[in-house]
Amino acid sequence: MPLLPSVGNHFHESACGGDKLHQTGEELGQVTNGSPDPKQRSWTQVGGFMYHFARVEQKINQAVIKLTELDAKSAPVVELIDFAKKVDLVQKSAYAQTTENAKDKEFAKDVCSKAFTMNQYRRIVAHASFEPTGDGVQFSRAVTSKRGEVLPVTEPWTEADFTKCYAEMGALETDLDKLIELLKPTPKGWFFQNVDVINPPIRNVTLYAPASDWVPQPPPKR
Question: What's the pTM value of the predicted model, to 2 decimals?
């Protein structure tokens, strides 16, 4: 797993509703630990991550809808926009609206940074193949080195890694609610003038393995 910063310390898709589905990281941990079938447990772990991420994206969608003042008929189009683009819009809007309040601006930066970071993990969970291993999951994918070599990458996630993700995405939901309260609708046309809806923003994502032989990294200590 890439050594990304912690969401909790700066860490490591329509949303489902209903109290019965809104399980905490601890509750999901109990479900997976109690599963006698390793594959069923791994499916629950990966599904739990995607469930919580979908709830985070739902909050981002709410923020974008508030900023753009979309009506009920137009609002569903927000779900079609790349996640990173939506967070970029929320971050730029928050920066523009909190220029005189350093505390709120720092809060917006922190929340959006956590969302970007979790999205990098979501790319692994959503797009890599996986199999059960130990008490967790081993993701498998390939990267291209700077020398043009395709190298296999295996990234093990433990039960504790997943539980930590669930809890931190739950906390991120709460922070996004607070951020939404701070936001105000933007002037008409501001969205298209300030956000590239075609090309996603480029973040610190490693696309290539080092030129030397690549060695898989362990999960980050959280």
Answer: 0.73
